[in-house]
């Protein structure tokens, strides 16, 4: 009887002590034995994005899209719709099984990176009746990638990159041009169901030493959507589900939605009892004519401000996407059928651009001037310095079929990306 009582009391305390409570100070973070990954107490995130793999992007794997000749589908949705699900499945299975393999994860770890961010669309898990997507297979590859990451000591962010109806109208959300995620409750419902599945599955104890963040949604287009609706109908229910239904101490990652620094400071705050939130900022300087036209010194200055800009933010921050791009010349970077602003060939609606320089031979390193190479290395180093002022960085992408500016593996091969990652040819760019 007494033994049984003791057992019950012990069990009671076990249950109590395993229930997550918000950390009051950095000391109490130690109570989070495994899962609660304390970004501020560890070395900066130095990561890579596994872009263009489980979510197609024409500029990352142009060969998949060039196969269509003159009538190129603009995104994965139309890729699958044009081919039909059976043929799309054959081609996508080939892509998923070859574009990334165990060797890549081994290589990523040996180059000194410590994390991979893996984008996946809602359609990998569940589809709307009207969807043409291939579904139900990506998960096998995702799980394999997580297992390889674990094997080679890499941490993982699982990143929900596409919501039903699209959260931004970018091709990388699966469906280009429309932004209808929050307009129809069936879109919110199916995306939330998928998110709950992801939260539940990838917060399991067996993943605790590997998966240190789940990104609720990539790049919702803040200025075009109802952010209060996003918070109330999507983010808060997901947070609630994670902490109160799953009782998990998983970290959640929230993209800044293209809002200014400090915008998220009063959302899911410690004062409200919320915790384990990291804000993900993405930074590029090639998606407007004005940014492309700045001088190299101005670009470096902007990059350094990306570092100082987040220092006062209430939540922990990581720069979850950035690149080496000083031009937007990579074919289809702006989307299939849309040219480059850099050489003035950009045509989209009433947007115009003007000639700033040639995009010819952009992907041939032997055609790059020494100055361009130096500028690229300078730009990368300044960004790493800036982002390491706080939580670190995740470069977009590890590899592409043909691009240089978006491909860490090629940049490393050409000596434009530091090896080791802490090496600097241009030290102290952000400390002046
Ligand atoms: C979405 O979910 C809500 C809440 O469960 C439900 O009331 C609504 O009918 C659903 N919408 C659709 C289109 O299924
Ligand atoms: C979708 O929602 C946005 C933001 O609330 C609104 O501006 C837009 O008109 C809506 N689109 C449709 C098709 O209802």
TrEMBL record:
It comes from the Eukaryota. Its main location: secreted. Residues 95-258 form the Glycoside hydrolase family domain. GO terms for biological process: cell wall organization; glucan catabolic process. Residues 1-18 form the signal peptide. The keyword Secreted applies. InterPro entries: GH, Glyco_hydro_5, Glyco_hydro_5_CS, Glycosyl_hydrolase_5. It catalyses: Successive hydrolysis of beta-D-glucose units from the non-reducing ends of (1->3)-beta-D-glucans, releasing alpha-glucose. It is an enzyme of class 3 (hydrolase). Keywords: Cell wall biogenesis/degradation, Glycosidase, Hydrolase, Secreted, Signal. One of its GO terms (molecular function) is glucan exo-1,3-beta-glucosidase activity. Its EC number is 3.2.1.58. PROSITE patterns: GLYCOSYL_HYDROL_F5. Pfam families: Cellulase. One of its GO terms (cellular component) is cell surface. It is found in: Secreted. Belongs to the glycosyl hydrolase 5 (cellulase A) family. This is glucan 1,3-beta-glucosidase. It comes from Kazachstania africana (strain ATCC 22294 / BCRC 22015 / CBS 2517 / CECT 1963 / NBRC 1671 / NRRL Y-8276) (Yeast). The lineage of its organism: Eukaryota, Fungi, Dikarya, Ascomycota, Saccharomycotina.
């Amino acid at each position: 009887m007494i033994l049984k009582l003791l057992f019950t009391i012990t069990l009671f305390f076990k249950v109590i002590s395993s229930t997550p409570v918000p950390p009051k100070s950095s000391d109490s973070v130690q109570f989070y034995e495994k899962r609660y990954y304390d970004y501020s107490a560890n070395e900066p995130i130095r990561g890579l994005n596994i872009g263009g793999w489980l979510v197609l992007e024409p500029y990352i794997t142009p060969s998949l899209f060039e196969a269509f000749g003159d009538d190129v589908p603009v995104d994965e949705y139309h890729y699958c719709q044009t081919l039909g699900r059976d043929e799309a499945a054959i081609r996508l299975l080939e892509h998923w099984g070859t574009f990334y393999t165990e060797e890549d994860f081994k290589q990523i770890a040996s180059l000194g990176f410590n994390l991979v961010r893996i984008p996946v669309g809602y359609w990998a898990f569940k589809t709307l009746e009207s969807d043409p997507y291939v579904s139900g297979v990506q998960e096998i590859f995702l799980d394999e990638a997580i297992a390889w990451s674990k094997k080679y000591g890499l941490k993982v962010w699982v990143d929900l990159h596409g919501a039903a109806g699209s959260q931004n109208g970018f091709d990388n959300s699966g469906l280009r041009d429309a932004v209808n995620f929050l307009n129809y409750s069936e879109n919110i419902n199916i995306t939330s169901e998928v998110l709950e599945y992801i939260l539940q599955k990838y917060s399991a104890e067996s993943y605790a030493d590997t998966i240190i963040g789940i990104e609720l949604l990539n790049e919702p287009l803040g200025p075009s959507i109802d952010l209060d609706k996003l918070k109330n109908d999507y983010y808060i229910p997901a947070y609630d589900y994670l902490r109160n239904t799953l009782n998990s101490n998983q970290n959640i990652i929230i993209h800044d939605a293209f809002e200014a620094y400090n915008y998220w400071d009063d959302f899911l705050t410690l004062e409200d009892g919320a915790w384990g939130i990291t804000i993900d900022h993405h930074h590029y300087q090639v998606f407007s004519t004005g940014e492309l036209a700045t001088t190299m010194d101005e670009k470096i200055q902007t990059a350094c401000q990306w570092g100082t800009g987040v220092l006062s933010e209430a939540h922990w921050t990581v720069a979850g996407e950035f690149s080496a791009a000083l031009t937007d010349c990579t074919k289809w970077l702006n989307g299939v059928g849309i040219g480059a602003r850099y050489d003035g060939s950009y045509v989209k609606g009433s947007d115009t651009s003007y000639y700033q320089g040639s995009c010819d031979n952009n992907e041939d390193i032997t055609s790059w001037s020494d100055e361009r190479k130096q500028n690229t290395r300078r730009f990368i180093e300044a960004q790493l310095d800036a982002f390491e002022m706080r939580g670190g960085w995740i470069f977009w992408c590890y590899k592409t079929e043909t691009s240089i500016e978006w491909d860490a593996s090629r940049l490393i091969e050409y000596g434009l990306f530091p090896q080791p990652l802490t090496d600097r040819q241009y030290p102290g760019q952000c400390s002046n």
